[in-house]
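Board notes (copied after class):
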Amino acid sequence: DENTPSAVGTAIDWQNLSVGQNHTCGIRTDGSLYCWGYNRSGQLGNGTIRVDEKKTLVPSTARSDWKEMTVAHLHTCGITLDGALYCWGGNDHGQLGDGTTTIRDNPVRVGNTSDWNMIAARYHHTCGIKGTGDLYCWGLNADGQLGDGTTIDKYSPTRIGMDNDWQLVSTGSTSTCGIRAGGKMYCWNKFSLTPKVIGIDSDWLSIDVGYSHACAVKTDGSLYCMGANHLGQLGDGTIQDKTEFVHIISGSDWQTISVGGEHTCGIRAGGELYCWGSNLSYQLGNGMIQNEITPIRISGANDWQVVAAGSFMTCGVRAEGKLYCWGDGYPTPTRRNAESAWSVVDVEETHRCAIKTSGSLYCAGYNNVGQLGIGNDTLAPEKVLNP
């Protein structure tokens, strides 16, 4: 376990990263995509499914025109500059969208169009939005998370409804939500097998869907949450699950929200940080180990700018780019590196990674399958192969 962030290579041009359960991917400014960590399903896209040997870079076989990517539990997807979509890794439910359930250790093209704008994947299904505004989903559908009116897995992209003005989509484990032009929000799951409009308002701004709950913020700063609530992760003062979004009355000036495994954190307009839900690993950061069913303020600081909630840990960035993490045995926000100028951070079950404004990338946490990318006799960052 590496508690202090370690530099991932020597490059200083990282611009984007996505942290999965046991693997990580990042894009550099030249458009090259690197992945490292657990690879038993081929989710690194390097042409192998091994995790017990150290790899070296093979620049001549890797493309450099990636603009966006997303890392799920056992698969990865990315969009190139020309709008082509590729996925690779685990495919037991068809989540790669290539029409099969075959594991792919190289990127495979999803369809033959080049107009994908957005891709989202967190667990075992994938959704994407095309330049036309059409929404497509595929993969696991046991709980209706694809939104096509069935509970049958889909092995290739399936258009969801006939609307062509989707702007945002967020995928969880058993639910999916999206926002259309005009600010209307829709969600779908076992309670509604097709997109169901949430309320009558048209002012939804953002949505984050986690393993079993979701939270959304409106343009007026009000916060709403829905889903599992046995540990208070909705923040509504109860432990009853909610099948509809409920208003979280603590404040009306929320700016950003991050949904973790079974806890939630958010930043309000004044820079105050609040967390609630499960706290068995100190992931709320209030120094206690008891769950909280309403938002509680974390530290007395009012300069929080970024927050990322994982399964058992949370990290945040304060003014001047100072990085703090808590949980997994650390009861309160602890500065993990004396340096400042941190800008991007992502946290998952076993590790966390962050990018500095200089473009350098650091990771910390467990490294049993090379998920930190620091090359400790495990996988170092490796370019994803050409499709």
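Comment from the instructor: Residues 52-61 have pLDDT under 50 and may be disordered. Residues 266 and 372 are 26 Å apart (CA to CA).
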